[in-house]
Amino acid sequence: MKKSLRFGAAIALAATASLTLASCGFGGGSGSDDESGGATTLDLLVPSYSDNTQGLWEDVITGFEKENPDIKVNLEVQSWDNLESVITTKIQGGEAPDIYNGGPFAGFAADGLLYPAEEVVSADTFSDFQDSFIANAEVDGTAYALPLIASARALFVNNALLEQAGVAAPPTTWDELLDAATKISALGGGIAGYGMPLGSEEAQAEAAVWLWGGGGTFGDATEITVDDPANLPGADQIKKMIDAGATQADPGSTDRSPLMDIFIQGKIGMQVGLPPTVGQIEENNPDLDYSIVPIPTEDGSPFTLGVMDQLMAFQNDGDKQDAITKFLDYYYTADVYVPWVQTEGFLPVTKSGAEALGGEEALAPFLEVLPDAQFYPSTNPKWSATDAAFKALFGQIQTKPSQEVLTEIQAQVDAG
Amino acid sequence: MSTTTDTSSTQAGAAHGRPRSGGSDPGTGRRRRGGRDLLASLPWIGPALILIFGVVLFPAVVMFYNSTRDISISGIDHGSVGIDNYVEVFSFPYFWPIFARTIVWVVVVVAATVLISLGLAQILDKAFPGRRIVRLAVIIPWAASVVMTTLVVYYGLEPYFGIINKFLVDVGLVDTPEGYGWTRNPATAFAWSIVVAVFVSLPFTTYTILAGLATIPGDVREAAKMDGAGPVRTYVSVILPQLRGALSVAVLINIINVFNSLPILKVMTGSIPGYDADTIMTLIFKYIQNQHKVDVASALSVVAFVIVIVIVAVYVKVVKPMQEV
Questions:
Q1: Cβ atoms within 10 Å of A218's Cβ, excluding its own
Q2: Is the separation of the CB atoms in A65 and A42 below 8 Å?
Q3: For residues A323 and A124, is the Cβ–Cβ distance under 8 A?
Q4: How far apart are CA A162 and CA A158, in angstroms?
Q5: Where are the alpha helices (DSSP H) in A73-230?
Q6: pLDDT, tens digit, for every residue of B233-258?
Q7: N or C: which end of chain A has fewer CB within 10 A?
Q8: ipTM of this predicted complex?
Q9: CA–CA separation, A336 vs A60, rounded Å?
Q10: DSSP SS3 for A113
Q11: Which element (helix H / strand E) includes A151?
Q12: Is pLDDT above 60 for A21?
């Protein structure tokens, strides 16, 4: 009796202890291993851009740790799908990474979680960034994020399909685009003229391509203006394309990546793509006869959607600032950064990087349109909510009046 | 019950000659003994209690607490907002359609599952060569993860390369060469989700009913036969009433399970814009994943929790599953 009682008590104690230990991560006080052996540990959370991403970062870290033996870097790679929920969960648990690679950052800055960019890189590195990119990372005049990569969009055109449909030259205006796409769709056999991905994966990008191409805007650092008359021509043009049957079926719920695969298979006439698309075609269907041209706009004036991803540093304990600075300075040196950005197939954001990659043929069409790039209003703290609203709602334009969709998106943004 | 414990513990104490201190006052003595009994039982009920508190009550309390807070996009708590989050949930224009769709989802999936399972169990209960293999085949969908099963169907339905679409095009049921966008339209995507949900619910339900069938003694069926009842009459009047216990367990667990099911709808309807194919569960997911509103999502979770409890309470009250036949 006595023995079994004691044994039972021991089990109960063990169970309590394990539960208590397991719940430690909840409270926030992360018992991190900063000081193990006098080394500083940096946590680095990054999304996966391609199959190369993990290896590229590992190479960066190996090189960095060799130069700085007293600093260790922990790498965590997540998919884009999970990234935002992972970072939110980590922040809530008091375990924010020291360096984070992501998109929207104004919300973190508004909560006072980030180091100003100038405090975590040396003056030399800071002045090496292209000015327009740094300007796009500023909240109230202070940059809170460091540009990491840039991408611009351009129209990928399947030359063979254009020729079959009797279209002489790639379109430059909406009218020409509608005309060309309708002709290609008329070829039949499951071929679509224009690939229009308005599904939840990246609806905000396709929306920007059309709405901004007609002179619209999503707003600026202080105000989000989706429900704006200037956005209507673009939205109406989307409807015109869908109604004319110039797009693939069900554009409202088609995601971008699977649709791009179908373009690569040669069944879509034209679709807006990114620099890495070049590599994808190379890998999967090198025989595809295609060309890259600027995105058609309402009046043919040049325009492209620029997207910039950033690195940001979280103010966790305050004692890691030096280590973070060392790491970022190392990363942005041309020898390290240029091969990184080149392998990922994106555009460089530093002046030295642009110089080094200036002669790159695959990037030329994108570097050409980059001066006309417009960016998302990502310095607005509400951009995150806007982005989500576009992803969740914009595809309804397939069935609903365009004005109604814009109003609904604006309402969700204002409520968030 | 408590008397028994008391006596046994006293006996045990006496037998082992355990010293008793302060036994002069009978009142304290009894209280002490009660305390000791509690202590003695703690090792046995303790782990269960810890589990209930840690895994059920604590998260529920945190969920309820979060539902009254204002939590920023990056997860920082900005203080209490009272019932604002609940107001937001109920004033969401799509809430009631989503609520209705959730009920349709639960009713249709559970009803179809139970009906099909009744038939399947009846077949599997008959002795035929290779019955073991067929029984195994029925349980295999259970071994695959729900997401996996759903993804197989999802990719099968994709236009351009989906095998189901290809088949439908080849036999001439769909006349567009790239196939039909089954998962691109709310109604068809929801319908296919129901098909998948029924498919993955079948193994559990079938086996529960099969177990119920096994408990019906052979002489009852024999007696029915002797009384001249046909197969239909025997089934409806003799077998079905005896399956009541198994059926009510299967229905109850399926209701809870299907109501809380996220992965099927998330995969099948994930890329559809708007809220025309959502249930409460996918709406909670959208609040967290897309809008990062952990606070509103918590409020909706509390609402969902209450709805499940109400459904189960009504079911228990109306069907009285615990009552003997």
A1: 27
A2: no
A3: no
A4: 6
A5: 80-92, 106-110, 117-120, 123-128, 131-135, 159-164, 174-185, 203-213
A6: 888 888 888 898 899 889 999 999 99
A7: N
A8: 0.72
A9: 7
A10: coil
A11: strand A146-152
A12: no
* A-to-B residue pairs, Cβ atoms closer than 8 angstroms: 133
pLDDT range class, residue B34, cuts 50, 70, 90: confident
Per the CB < 8 A criterion, the answer to whether A311 and A137 are in contact is no
Give which of A228, A179, A211 is closest to A397, Cα–Cα: A211
- Cβ within 8 Å, pair A189-B47: no
Q: Cβ neighbours of residue B111 under 8 Å, at least 6 residues apart? A: none
Write out the two tokens for B21.
């201190």
- Is residue A348 within 8 Å of residue A337, measured between CB atoms? yes
User: Position B237: which residue type?
Assistant: S
Interchain CB distance below 8 Å, B273 and A415: no
| Dihedral angle over CA of A226, A232, A235, A240, nearest 10 | 170
**Overall average pLDDT of the A122-138 stretch:** 87
Alpha-carbon span A193 to A179, nearest angstrom: 9
Count of residues making up chain B: 325
B43 vs A11: CB contact, 8 Å cut-off? yes
DSSP single-letter state for residue A294 = P
CB B254, CB B182: distance < 8 Å? no
A74-88, A355-369, B5-19: least confidently modelled range: B5-19
CA B129 to chain centre: 34
Residues of chain B in Cβ contact (below 8 Å) with chain A: 12, 16, 40, 42-44, 46-47, 50, 54, 72-76, 88, 158-160, 176-178, 180-181, 183-185, 270-275, 286, 288-294
Q: Among all chains, which residue has been given the structure tokens 């046995």?
A: B44
- B290 pLDDT tier (thresholds 50, 70, 90): confident
CB A272 within 8 A of CB A212: no
Copy the structure tokens of residue A413.
Answer: 């943004």
Backbone dihedral region of A72: left (phi > 0), alpha (psi from -120 to 50 degrees) or beta? beta
CB contact at 8 A, A114 and A105: yes
Q: Which helix (H) or strand (E) holds A307?
A: strand A304-313
A184 class by beta-carbon count within 10 Å (0-12 exposed, 13-18 middle, 19+ buried): buried
Which residue, A294, A295, A291, A235, is CA-closest to A263? A291
Partner-chain contact A391 B290, CB within 8 Å: yes
Q: For residue A182, what pLDDT is reported?
A: 95
In whole angstroms, give the CA distance from residue B149 to residue B50.
35
Q: Using DSSP bridges, classify how beta strands A71-78 and A138-139 pair: parallel, antiparallel or unpaired.
A: unpaired
For A193-244, the pLDDT digits (tens) are 999 999 888 899 999 999 999 999 999 888 999 999 999 999 999 999 999 9
Token pair for A384: 């995150």
Give the other-Cβ count within 10 Å of A294's Cβ: 20
d(CA A396, CA B94): 14
